[in-house]
Design a protein that fits this description.
It contains 13 helices and 17 strands. The chain has 363 residues and is of the alpha/beta class. The protein has two domains: 100 residues, no CATH class; 212 residues, 3-Layer(aba) Sandwich (Rossmann fold). It has a seven-stranded mixed sheet with strand order 4-3-2-5-10-17-16. Strands 1, 6, 7, 8 and 9 form a five-stranded antiparallel sheet that branches. Strand 12 and strand 13 form a beta hairpin. The longest helix is centred in the first third of the chain and has 17 residues. The protein is globular.
Length: 363
């Protein structure tokens, strides 16, 4: 990977590339990209963990809730999951769905990683309703639920900073056998447009990530969705939270074996790279693209509204290794303060329908 990046940078104008180009290559290059290589990435033996890999309850609760939502919307059941990872969410969802209804469900997985597509096929071979495709642009007009878990935090981003009262873009170069940062005057008109739309004003020496790729994903989702909901689970900040002095260094970071890596230029292609999502922009851009905002809930709040407390077993079992005791511990881990769900939010948007938050969660 480092040899490839060195040549890419050497062949580029001014011998440097944007952080967005760097992240795109180190995560998604067909041969060298982190997500494309055949290495375990999710779970205890990987580099990071997701809610769906903490417990199957996440997929099970979503199946029960969406079963009721489809009835309320009077729609044929159909799910499009973008970026399904190892397939564990889909597996838990479909297993629970088979217990709820004999009605067929269409389950479409959009997955760019050949490695993850292989894992999904192995785990989901017993579910004939699964269809895998490589890209959103291959999806025909779709009616149903478009779901993603940690999609937007994995998109390439530009990085800018305010220095001496002026905005600069942080670029990636190669010098003395290592990747380094350069600062150049900001000239990218799309970044200026983003700042104008969000009304974000950086303080001196503040650094922030600009997710221009988010526009493309939202446009693609809006283009294929004719009627239904978009449900995005991710971590991020509002504009007000971005301006908090604690965010002055931005949110760009890497993960390797569950440890945070501050310098994402180290070990390119071998670590996960992530940033926090611009929630206000995601919501406003969605509104502009006819993906109308319905709700933003912290994930533990969402799970409670969706009925997770009903799953708690009423009977006490003194055996800590019993199925009931393990299940109850999993439920508590998803909703107790400080648990994984407290760091995530669920953004719900709609197109072609008109529901408010209360209606979606009403029994």
């Amino acid at each position: 990977m480092i040899t490839y990046l060195q040549k890419l940078i050497s062949d580029s104008p001014n011998k440097m590339i944007s952080y967005a180009d760097f992240i795109s290559e180190v995560l998604y290059h067909p041969f060298y990209g982190y997500y494309m290589k055949e290495n375990q990435k999710i779970g205890r033996q990987g580099d990071f963990i997701t809610t769906s890999n903490v417990s199957d309850l996440y997929g099970q609760i979503m199946a029960k809730w969406l079963w009721s939502v489809f009835h309320k919307l009077d729609m044929m059941p159909a799910i499009c999951e973008i970026g399904a990872g190892n397939g564990r969410f889909a597996h838990a969802f479909l297993q629970e769905w088979s217990q709820l209804s004999n009605a067929p469900i269409r389950y479409l997985i959009v997955e760019t990683s050949p490695y993850h597509r292989k894992l999904q096929r192995q785990l989901l071979e017993g579910f004939p309703s699964i269809t895998q495709i490589d890209s959103l642009i291959e999806v025909e007009r779709f009616e149903g639920i478009i779901f993603s878990n940690e999609l937007f935090d994995a998109l390439p981003v530009h990085v800018i900073e305010k220095e001496n009262g002026k905005l600069v873009e942080i670029m990636v170069g190669y010098e003395k056998d290592r990747l380094i940062e350069y600062k150049v005057p900001l000239t990218n008109a799309a970044i200026y447009t983003f700042l104008q739309q969000t009304k974000l004003e950086l303080s001196e020496h503040q650094r922030i990530e600009i997710p221009l790729a988010m526009d493309t994903i939202l446009q693609q989702i809006s283009a294929i969705l004719t009627k239904g909901l978009v449900i995005s689970a991710d971590y991020g900040y509002t504009n007000e939270e971005w301006m908090d002095p604690r965010r002055k260094k931005g949110s760009l970071r890497g993960y390797s074996q569950h440890k945070m890596v501050d310098n994402v230029l180290e070990h390119p292609g071998d670590i996960d790279i992530t940033t926090h999502v611009h929630f206000d922009y995601l919501i406003e851009k969605g509104n502009q693209l006819n993906l109308r905002y319905v709700s933003k809930l912290r994930q533990d709040e969402f799970l409670i509204k969706a009925g997770i407390l009903k799953e708690l077993e009423e009977s006490y079992d003194p055996n800590p290794f019993s199925t009931a005791a393990k299940r109850n511990r999993s439920i508590r881990s998803l909703i107790l303060p400080g648990g994984i769900s407290s760091y995530f939010h669920m953004i719900i948007q709609q197109k072609g329908i008109q529901f408010d938050e209360a209606a979606l969660f009403r029994d």
